[in-house]
């Protein structure tokens, strides 16, 4: 869990929507290798579904090159091979029956390209946004637990920095959720920034103190520091619900219903408890 510490500190730099926009706007070049025109078309439909508006599809496909095209650049970001086509080392094979496995393999190997890949190619959007939500939820759980442990904070977070930048963990959690909103909008091909995402940011800020009050109430009822676990679990679950709500809105253009939010929260809270317990145990070993 503590490998996320660097990500927690780096999160602040990406609260700037311009930084997110710049990261997401990198043009990705993908080389395709296949045995027939129909297989090339299959790969292209995988990357950008045929249902996408024609002009948008042409724009998104500007960085996709078939083997043998006269304008293929010397270097591409990744090579995708058709189903059954031999793949050179470092290339990725399209799994016709399990396309999401292909997505997972590419994102795992090309983690630094996840955001621009998702913005340019719809095939990667759901997986990339899910990774964003889970990562930020873990960061917030880590921050909440670690800042309550005196033996961990000076070592891992450099206490002067943490106190100088954030008045409370509520402030960090809220800022990090705003950053998550920017990242999800970028991954989904939407507009990024305070002006474009006013409603999302207002909802995040408005909900922050409700989650904080709930965490305090639960923590106060559990003796001997046991409240760290529910606090961390709530930080995780609250962030996860916000993220999944944003993801759902960008894909379906409708908010999650109350029943859906409740279901997502209950599932995320259980996962958050496991994350918080892992952080607490690791902190004990570090101490």
Structure description:
The protein has helices at residues 5-10, 17-24, 37-47, 54-60, 99-109, 114-120, 125-146, 153-157, 159-165, 169-187, 198-220, 228-252, 258-286; strands at 30-33, 64-66, 78-81, 92-93. Helix 2 (17-24) packs parallel to helix 10 (169-187). It is elongated and about 60 Å long. It is mainly alpha-helical. A four-stranded parallel beta sheet has the order 2-1-3-4, covered by helices on one side. It has two domains: 2-24 and 122-286, no CATH class; 30-112, no CATH class.
Short descriptors:
287 residues; 2 domains; elongated; disordered N terminus
Give the strand line-up of the largest sheet: 2-1-3-4
Could you tell me the radius of gyration in angstroms?
Answer: 21 Å
Mean residue pLDDT: 82
**Total number of distinct structural domains:** 2
Cα distance spanning the termini:
15 Å
Helix content: 55-70%
Written as H for each helix and E for each strand, in order along the chain, the element string is: HHEHHEEEHHHHHHHHH
Question: Major beta sheet, specifics?
Answer: 4 strands, parallel
Low-confidence stretches: 1-5, 151-167
Strand content: under 5%
Give the CA-based shape. elongated
- Strand pairing plus helix content: what structural class? mainly alpha
How many H/I helical runs? Answer: 13
Number of E strands: 4
């Amino acid at each position: 869990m503590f490998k996320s510490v660097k990500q927690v500190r780096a999160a602040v730099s990406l609260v700037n929507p311009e930084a997110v926009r710049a990261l997401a706007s990198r043009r990705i070049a993908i080389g395709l290798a296949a045995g027939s025109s129909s297989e090339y078309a299959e790969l292209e439909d995988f990357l950008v579904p045929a249902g996408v508006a024609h002009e948008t599809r042409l724009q998104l496909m500007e960085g996709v090159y078939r083997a043998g095209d006269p304008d293929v650049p010397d270097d591409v970001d990744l090579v995708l091979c058709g189903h059954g086509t031999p793949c050179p080392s470092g290339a990725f094979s399209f799994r016709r029956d399990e396309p999401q496995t292909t997505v997972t393999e590419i994102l795992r190997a090309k983690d630094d390209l996840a955001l621009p890949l998702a913005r340019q190619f719809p095939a990667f959007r759901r997986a990339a946004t899910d990774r964003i939500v889970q990562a930020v939820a873990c960061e917030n759980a880590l921050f909440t637990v670690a800042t309550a442990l005196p033996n961990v904070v000076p070592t891992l977070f450099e206490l002067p920095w943490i106190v100088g930048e954030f008045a409370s963990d509520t402030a960090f959690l809220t800022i990090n959720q705003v950053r998550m909103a920017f990242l999800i909008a970028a991954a989904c091909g939407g507009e990024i920034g305070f002006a474009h995402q006013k409603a999302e940011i207002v909802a995040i800020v408005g909900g922050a103190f409700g989650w904080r009050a709930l965490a305090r109430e639960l923590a106060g009822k559990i003796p001997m520091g046991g409240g760290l676990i529910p606090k961390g679990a709530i930080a995780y679950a609250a962030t996860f619900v916000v993220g999944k709500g944003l993801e759902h809105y960008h894909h379906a253009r409708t908010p999650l219903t109350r029943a859906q939010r409740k279901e997502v929260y209950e599932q995320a809270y259980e996962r958050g408890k496991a994350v918080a317990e892992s952080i607490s145990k690791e902190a004990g070993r570090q101490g």
